[in-house]
């Protein structure tokens, strides 16, 4: 029913946020002598591989019971995913010797992540034909099984490749002996990492994600009622993914030359300008797709730099003589993103109510159409402006950090 779907949607949103918060706490609080991050990555590969198919399995039971099972399996699967996500991005920080190394690794991950979106329109048919052996009702479960096998293979690959940077020797270095227990990071030590630049960057990330959440939500209504072209949102997937891939290739070089903070400032200013330019698109679908691609090109900056900023904050705290809770900070980056998307969804809901949107009407009033068009541009641009203001308040000396990192390498 609609009520059950709405209830499940609310639960899912909170599960995403809370499991992301828990991810960093779990990793920093429970290390392993085999290596903290690579071990958690491997464990989570198995968790996701098991519970992803179960989440979408059809058991032939009542809707209420199926809903309960879905929430349980989805929660465990999402916890595994978020812990693995956090562990992998923390590993990128451990692998990097300089600030730019972290940017390069983050950008490479972003490029890899956009490849499926680029090729999806061309391969989704054959891909979904593969798990038909599971039956029509369990096609998503079958697809989950195939995905799980690939995830486990990737888990072993990363686990093996990262032994030299996050293995037994590094775990023993916490206490100086392999016989003693590996040092845990206390919860209050984790919380301290969010003060100063950590807190400011958390706020920046929330509003950056909020602008994306508002726009992506209102975009559907914009396409249907303003552009009168519902299919245009789907037609932009490949174009925007290609733009993100191209942008991600150049982000490391640009960030190295101008600095990550300056690149963030440029991103927010450019996004505000592009939202204003979007007004010019009118009902021109082609121009709309071009502007959306340009927005994605600019927006890939934060996708590439978010993990690197969290590495900077962890190193900054260590440089100041405090504990750098690396996994916790990475999970806070993911939490801020999810909170921002939730905030964007809430803003979008109030926006539609304010402009008088009525889902029962096939044709909306001129006032409603004008409101949708205006708020699709104004609301995300305002969120970008708030993020821009807080970016100016973020103060971490990247040159001092690089000197500190090099001193650690030379120890």
Low-confidence stretches: 175-180
- Residue share in helix: over 70%
Structural class by SSE content? mainly alpha
Cα(first) to Cα(last) distance is: 62 Å
| Helix and strand run | HHHHHHHHHHHHHHH
The global form is globular
Q: Mean pLDDT, as a whole number?
A: 81
Estimated radius of gyration: 22 Å
Number of strands: 0
Number of DSSP helical runs: 15
Strand residue content: under 5%
- How is the biggest beta sheet arranged? none
Would you mind describing this structure in some detail?
The protein has 411 residues and is mainly alpha-helical. Helix content is 80%, strand content 0%. The protein has helices at residues 2-29, 36-55, 63-95, 99-129, 139-161, 168-172, 187-192, 197-226, 232-235, 237-258, 260-281, 285-319, 326-354, 366-393, 398-409. The radius of gyration is 22 Å and the shape is globular. Residues 175-180 have low confidence and may be disordered.
Task: Describe the SSE topology.
Elements: H1 2-29, H2 36-55, H3 63-95, H4 99-129, H5 139-161, H6 168-172, H7 187-192, H8 197-226, H9 232-235, H10 237-258, H11 260-281, H12 285-319, H13 326-354, H14 366-393, H15 398-409
Helix pairs in contact: 1-3, 1-13, 2-3, 2-5, 3-4, 3-13, 4-10, 4-12, 8-12, 8-13, 8-14, 10-11, 10-12, 11-12, 11-14, 12-13, 12-15, 13-14
């Amino acid at each position: 029913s609609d009520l059950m779907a709405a209830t499940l949607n609310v639960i899912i949103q909170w599960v995403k946020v809370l499991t992301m918060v828990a991810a960093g706490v779990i990793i920093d609080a429970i290390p392993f002598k085999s290596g903290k991050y690579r071990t958690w990555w491997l464990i989570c590969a198995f968790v996701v591989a098991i519970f992803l198919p179960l989440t979408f399995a059809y058991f032939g039971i009542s809707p209420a019971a199926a809903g309960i099972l879905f929430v349980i399996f989805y929660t465990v699967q999402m916890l595994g995913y978020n812990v693995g996500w956090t562990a992998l991005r923390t590993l990128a920080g451990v692998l990097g010797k300089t600030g730019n190394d972290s940017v390069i690794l983050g950008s490479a991950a972003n490029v890899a992540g956009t490849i499926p979106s680029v090729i999806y329109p061309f391969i989704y048919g054959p891909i979904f034909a593969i798990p038909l052996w599971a039956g029509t009702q369990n096609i998503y479960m079958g697809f989950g099984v195939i995905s799980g096998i690939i995830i486990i293979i990737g888990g072993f690959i990363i686990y093996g490749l990262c032994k030299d940077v996050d293995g037994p020797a590094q775990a023993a270095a916490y206490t100086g002996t392999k016989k003693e227990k590996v040092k845990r990071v206390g919860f209050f030590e984790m919380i301290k990492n969010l003060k100063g630049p950590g807190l400011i960057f958390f706020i920046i990330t929330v509003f950056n994600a909020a602008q994306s959440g508002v726009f992506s939500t209102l975009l559907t209504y914009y396409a249907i009622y303003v552009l009168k072209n519902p299919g245009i949102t789907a037609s932009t997937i490949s174009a925007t993914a290609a733009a993100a891939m191209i942008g991600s290739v150049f982000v490391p070089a640009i960030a190295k030359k101008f600095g990550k903070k300056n690149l963030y400032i440029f991103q927010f200013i450019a996004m505000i300008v592009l939202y204003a330019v979007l007004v010019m698109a009118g009902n021109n679908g082609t121009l709309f797709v071009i502007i959306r691609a340009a927005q994605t090109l600019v927006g890939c900056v934060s996708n590439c730099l978010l993990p690197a900023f969290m590495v900077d904050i962890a190193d900054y705290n260590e440089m100041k003589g405090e504990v750098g809770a690396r996994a916790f900070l990475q999970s806070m980056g993911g939490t801020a993103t999810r909170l921002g998307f939730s905030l964007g969804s809430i803003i979008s809901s109030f926006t539609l109510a304010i402009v008088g949107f009525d889902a029962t009407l096939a044709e909306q009033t001129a006032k409603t159409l004008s409101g949708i068009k205006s708020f699709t541009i104004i609301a995300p641009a305002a969120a970008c402006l708030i993020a821009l203001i807080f970016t100016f308040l973020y103060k971490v000396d990247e040159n001092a950090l690089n000197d500190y990192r090099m001193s650690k390498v030379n120890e």
